[in-house]
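To illustrate this point, we now present one chain and its tokenised fold:
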Amino acid sequence: MSDNQFTHFDAEGKAIMVEVGDKAPTRRVAVARGEVRMNEATLTRILDRGFEKGDVLAVARIAGIMAAKKTPELIPLCHPLLLTSVAIEFLPHPGEGRLEIEATVKVAGQTGVEMEALTAVAATALCVYDMCKAVDKAMVIGEIRLMEKHGGKSGSFIRND
């Protein structure tokens, strides 16, 4: 199969789960990022832990980790994986009203963890929104993207922008 063919469809165009049973397990890593844009006052309140619902970043981190583990239940045709690590980091940008989220997911397995990293970022951002929506309904979630991946037959990918 060439690199430009879709792997989740058979020759007749029917959806399939890709066969990975013959692949040797290798160490795989994926890093994804996204952001939540908000009022500057909302970001300040998050960083000061000033929300009555609790520590927004701590709760959002747990949501992201849980989401990475649940990815096959959310995204059709994803393989269930025994993740070895999920890390969620926050990169606040004071003065811009922007909270960047980065998820790093690792596995020793037969298929990659790009979807788990992307799902972790999305769920983390949604949790931030949920915890802060009472004071800032205009928040915008966006720019969710794969930054890098390593391992597997296709090798490494590193985003250049």
